[in-house]
Here is the input.
Amino acid sequence: MPSVRAERPGAAALLGWLTAPDAPRLCLVTGAPGLLDWLAAHGPRAAGRRRTTRALVPLTGRTALGTAWAVADHLGVVAASPGDLVRALATTETGRATRTVLLLPALHTAAEPLAVARLLKDLAALGRVRVVVETVPGTPEHTLLAEGRVTLVDEDQAPEPPQPPAQLPPDLSDPHAVCAADPVAVTTGYVQDPADDHGGLRPAWLRAGQALCAARTPADRALGLLALLGDGADPRLRPALHELAAGAPWRVRWTRVAGDVAPPWPGPAAALAAQDGTLLVADLAGTVHLLSAADARPLGRLDHPVTGRVTSLAPAPDGTVLLLDERGRLHTVRGTRPRPPYLQRLTEAVSTTLTRHPGTALAAIAGSVVVGDRLGSVHAFGLTGLHQAALHSGRVTAVAAVESATPFVCSGGTDGTVRRWTPGRDPDPSPLAERPSPVVSLSATETPHGPLLATAWADGTVRLDRLEQDDHVDFRPGPPVRSVTVTPDGALVVGLDEALVRLERVSG
Here is the structure.
């Protein structure tokens, strides 16, 4: 079959633009039907140490929100809105070593072509990605994108036949129809119908939509909706979604969403920990709420001296709770049981050390306090001395410690890796897990079925590992994940800005 590059000047021009380092970041393609699909199908070769990827995002029927979710998925970030996507790319590192070219065909068939054009223009202006858009001259969206410094590629071929009308949205109040339908059509339907919350399905979808659009099955979409469904929703929805989610690997035990009143939502979960049957939930203001792990009933607040945000919570076996504040300093809240003097001396020594060398992550087990630092090292302070290991490239963002026959530490960093280390020994050479996105939270505990490790990454993915079985299962709630914890009975609690969710893995 003759190559498109040889037969079509537009293809050669587009490939030349892709390889020109000083070319504008935005390229408009006109009169070249099928060119972007061909470019996506013929991936690039590796270029030196950095690899270029091409991400195809068809725009037919998409709103600006749906486009933002699709682009965010390709770039490894989480975005609740188009503006949120632009801010995320402008202010954060994704941890990816690849360069991405976004290929966006048929802008004129989008549900909101002008709003989508504004988003694409903002993305190209950031310089983080290259953007190739198929447009039709004379349309408002083409005029908007053609302003400023752009590259134009025009083959002047006859346009493709008119696109078939976008799929009509399903009954947006019917959970069965919503979970089974094309997620692009559902998103567009909810965006275009802001006056009706459809029994609570609309706000749940708009919270979880990035994950729901990427979900592979109706059961996974039902699970995502169930996890972010508020208590004001139509009471018929929850049992219907539970039935629809029967094929998913998780069960939602309970969820607390912003606006809930019975029990109330405790606020954003900046840090989480489990202590016996109690959950400790630190909000953005530094208050640590105490909840029943079984049903999220409020049990009061932790009386602690910290002012400002708490970044890590580390309950110790004797009932003491250690806290790390946003400046990297250690604070101690005594439990109701008397504390052995040697443990008190240990925490005082760690606290003194952190006043000089602030920590970035914290964990505790019997007789040990574990701290991560900004240079990638993990320090285990114990009764027998100090052990240290350089485990990460860049800042350590989370640590967890497991009290088992041979206690061990797990750590995560901005490099996206999760590593296991037994203090006093060499670290395991291979990571337990790795994603091209920073780790944001870790939790580990010993259970009757062996140790469990929960990891959350900045791309919105949560993973629960059964370490002894080398087995894991993932969950994506949709919004950014701020914190995770594993309860002693093996449940996973996920903390978000607008929700707190308890999940239990289906046996298997």
Notes: The radius of gyration is 25 Å. Residues 376 and 393 are 6 Å apart (CA to CA).
